[in-house]
Amino acid sequence: MLSNWRNRQAFIKSSIEFLRKYNFDGLDLDWEHKGTPETRPEDKLKFTLLCKELLEAFLAESQSHKDARLILTATVSAQKEVIERSYKIQEISKYLDFISVKTFDFHTFKDGIVRHHSPLYSAVHDEENIYSNTDFALQYWRFQGAPAKKLLMGFATYGRSFILASSQNGVGAPAKNFASPGPYTQEMGLWSYFEICLFLNGGVVQWLEDQKVPFSVKGSDWVGFDNLRSFEIKSLLISQVFLQDQHSAERPFKKRLRSPGNVSATAGRFIQNEIPASLKSS
After folding, report:
1. Stretch 131-160: mean pLDDT, rounded?
2. Are residues 242 and 120 in the same domain?
3. Is 61 a catalytic residue?
4. I need a labelling partner for 257 at 20 to 30 A (CA). Which of 51, 57, 69, 200 fits?
């Protein structure tokens, strides 16, 4: 569909017809460059053109029919290497109303160890995964030119679960595989929040202080997830770091990028000072 103007126009025309027919408010583009043989470097530019052409068509359609303009948003990757090959951030930000960053699924079973899939910050001693966290992803989108007012943080209402391979049960412990499917979602290694609540019945919620997210262990099953406490702390990141001072925040982040290991630590100290006492202990 991205390959040429004619194909993009066919998509845009049919999208507008569908959205108006069924009274939708707008269109969300969930797109990223997977780095597979089927995707090409020029797709980065062509996705930018699609965003531009969609907005132009939405504007023209709303003016000709005297309707409210359709909203245009995109759901985008939070992984640094995917971001770099997928998006011209400063350009697409001109055309999109909102940008939803998928700040979850940072970790899967592929590395053979348990890690939290939606940490707010990287672990204190984590030197290999300093980019795989919510704080860095949103800061990176901002630093590359996305306006803070357009960025939306993804909140995961599910957890990633594993089977432990030893008596170790902290972050980085060896894992055998994804955990068995939950009784309702029926997907290996993915439990919805209500399935996690069943798992927590009689269990203990543990807290990763450096990453600001919870996990739990029962027998050989390990699950990392989000709860009210982690959501509230993540909300503080949005309100305090990103929206409070959009202009002056650019320079300190550029400085921290020279030493990526300090990105989470610096923001983490700021947020820690803002966390209410009730959340620190809950």
Report:
1. 94
2. no
3. no
4. 51
Domain range enclosing 257: 235-281
Q: In Å, how far are 83, 165, 241 from 51, measured between CA atoms?
A: 16, 46, 28
From the list 17, 32, 81, 274, the catalytic residue is 32
Gap between the Cα atoms of 154 and 234, Å rounded: 10
- Greatest pairwise CA separation for the chain in angstroms: 66
Q: What is the pLDDT of residues 79-136, one digit of tens each?
A: 999 999 999 999 999 999 999 999 999 998 777 899 999 999 998 877 777 899 999 9
User: Per the structure, how many domains does the chain have?
Assistant: 3
171 and 41 within one domain: no
The mean per-residue pLDDT over the stretch 29-58 comes to 89
Q: Are 128 and 134 in contact (CB under 8 A)?
A: no
| One domain, residues 53 and 130 | yes
What's the CA gap between 205 and 227, in Å, rounded? Answer: 10
Element spanning 202, H or E: none
* Distance separating alpha carbons of residues 143 and 221, to the nearest angstrom: 38
CATH number at residue 64: 3.20.20.80
- Do 56 and 102 lie in one domain? The reply is yes
